[in-house]
Amino acid sequence: MAGLRRGTKKSEEKGCLRLEISAADDIPDGFERAKFSSPFLDMAGPYYERQAKGSIIVATRINKGHINHIKVAHGGVLGTLADVALSYQVHRAEKPALPVATMNLNTNYLAGAKLGDWVEAHAVIDRISKRTAYCSGRIVCGDTVLMTMSAVFAILRK
Fold first, then answer.
1. Which residue segments constitute the domains of the chain, with CATH numbers given?
2. Could you tell me which residue, 17 or 133, shows the higher pLDDT?
3. How far is CA 119 from CA 49, 58, 101, 135, 140, in A?
C-alpha cells in the first residue's frame, strides 16, 4: 500500500485510502503533480500522475469542491477524470505528443467516491491509427471499481 506523507492519518474501507484529517497535498508515494494544466483542469483537480507498466495512472483526491448534495463526488468529477486519463494516455502514446480531441466518451458509474478518497484512473489504448484512437479503462478507489469507461479520440495530426 502506498504511504502518505507525515502528519496524516488514514483509514481503509474495502482497500480504499481515505484521509481522516484533511490534507489536500498528501498523495501516495510515486505520484507527482500532473504535467498538464488548464484553468478548468486546475479547478477540477488537482491531478497527479504515475508511470505504470505500459500506461500512465492519473489520480486525484476527492475534496470539498467535488462533493454533491448526497455527500459523494459529483458524477462530473469522475467523468472529467475519465476523459483526462483516457485522452492523456493517447496524447502520450507517441513522441512528439499527439494532439487529441474527444469524439465519444462512455461512462458506467458503479460506486461513489467520498470526501478524502484517493481515486485512480487506469487507461489502456485498445487501438490506434493515424486519425483515431480507442481507449478504455476504469477508475478505482483501492479495490473498489467506481467507474468503467471507454472513449474514441480524433488524432489531430498535421
1. 10-155 (3.10.129.10)
2. 133
3. 11, 9, 24, 19, 6
